[in-house]
Amino acid sequence: MPTTTLRRAPVRRDHAGAAVPPARERAGWHPPRSDVLAAWAGTAAVTLLALLLRLHDLGRPRSFAFDETYYAKDAWSLLHFGYVQGYVDGADEQILGGRTDGLWSGDPSMVVHPELGKWLIALGERAFGMDPFGWRVASAVAGALMVLVMVRLARRVTRSTALGLFAGLLLTFEGQHLVLSRLALLDIFLALFVLAAVSCHVADRDWTRARMALAVGDTPLDPRSWGPRLWWRPWRLAAGVMWGAAISTKWTALFALAAFGLLLWLWDAGARRSFGVRWAVAKSAVIDALPALGYVVLLPLLLYVLSWTGWLLHAEVYEQALSDTQYGPYWGSYLETDATGFLPELWQSLRSLGHYHHDVYSFHTNFLNDSTHSYQSSPWGWFVLNRPVGIAVELDIPPGEQGCAAAEGSTCLRQVVMLGNPVVWWAGSLALLWSLVAGVTRRDWRHLLVLVGVAATWLPWFRYADRPIFSYYASLSLPFLVLALTLLVGQLAGGPDASRRRRLAATVVAGTLLGLTILAFAWFWPIWTDQLITRDEWLQRMWFTRWI
User: Fold this and answer.
1) Tell me: the pLDDT tens digits for 443-459?
2) What count of other Cβ atoms lies within 10 Å of the Cβ of residue 320?
3) Distance from C-alpha of 234 to C-alpha of 338, rounded to nearest angstrom
4) Nearest alpha carbon to residue 179 among 471, 516, 501
5) I need a labelling partner for 155 at 20 to 30 A (CA). Which of 245, 343, 360, 534 fits?
6) Where are the domains positioned within the chain?
7) Whole-prediction pTM
8) H or E element, residue 394
9) pLDDT per position as a tens digit, 72-117
10) 167 vs 122, 260, 373, 456, 525, CA distance in Å?
11) 346 touches 151 (CB < 8 A)
12) Is the bond preceding residue 468 a cis peptide, omega within 30 degrees?
């Protein structure tokens, strides 16, 4: 009788030639209980610090800053009418004066972004009122939660609580993130959901390997085996929810979803290969990738449609209003027959929503091609802060007014500038180069995570470089720069067997980076938070002419 020879996985070695522990041992990492408690205490402290900085004097400037004029009013309209209505001329001034009634036209507004982010803004308005604090508080909470996720992700990737807290503090004291967390824009919610989805994927990677190790045990796999079947993936389910929230905030999350979907497949294939499965990539495509479509494609799509519930319930308003516009001829067809019954009405509403998406896509791809904006910039310079965005400004405040202490012949001003912390962005850009080297030459999955994150959130914008795009769109890439810098510091520190001198040197480097980050944070704080400063003090902070 023929016998089957069981094949043991070959001994793997790292870039230094040292033997890599078997997959079963690598998959069994768990932090000591004392470290878990300390990690959560440190995470809570850093998150609270981030929240307090973002809530401080959140109602300033007392105006609709930048695109808040759209999202804050859209949120209020969703909250009170179920769909976004247009508003009368001069609505901004009346709202700032305390009035909210009689300002809405009743006609639907042609919004060009999904609605979840605006619903979150509406929660703040519902709790605190229709004023600058009310429409910004949800962003402040989202920014603080993003710091929490950053700490947990970096800790999981590096297996170090200290490095996780280091990453969280870098994001806490980052200026572009601070400003976005203090504005009623959609980008901070998008960045939170994408980072949370990526964090769930990394947790799923650990969970999968641990379950495979338990299933395989000490017995080598048959070479014909497909490996353990893991249909239930709780972290992948959580990731699907986060991706659904991300694309329900802005469509640009689709690029990251596609990139990380492919990375998931490669991670699963790598896990199976590490336990001895042959043809792991092909087998994983069937046993892992196909079921993953339900988690990270179908579920996000369902959640996306559900996020338009307010629109679907008022589809007839759009069908009526858009039938006499320049938009597609299909709108008039909806008025010819009136659907009756739940299912026919639902189907018609979904068809209407589909046509609406066609028109919104046409707006994004055609309408803005010939537009310009004074703060637009090329993606080539985003990571080196080539062109910040002016959010709000009050100029020519005379001496003595509002406490202005300018010398005679000079004035004071207040300004909010969407400018990143130079220490974080410049050091992070250099660390990104190291991730490129380490990811390619060492095939280190942690650096590949950084590279995929940056590529998926930055490279797609080059396709739209001929239209107005802004440097703060790189807020999606920022966490991956922070992670690259954290990994570099971890590399300097070495592993558990590193010498005391090496670990001390890495601690000095990390402390210096964090210290410089905090100093830069204090220096630029006035122009991130609309503080009163003299013109000379403002010029001292404008290091380059392109920052003006």
Assistant:
1) 899 999 999 999 999 99
2) 14
3) 43
4) 471
5) 245
6) 22-185, 310-367, 374-548
7) 0.93
8) strand 389-397
9) 999 999 999 999 999 999 999 999 999 999 899 888 988 889 999 9
10) 31, 21, 34, 21, 20
11) no
12) no
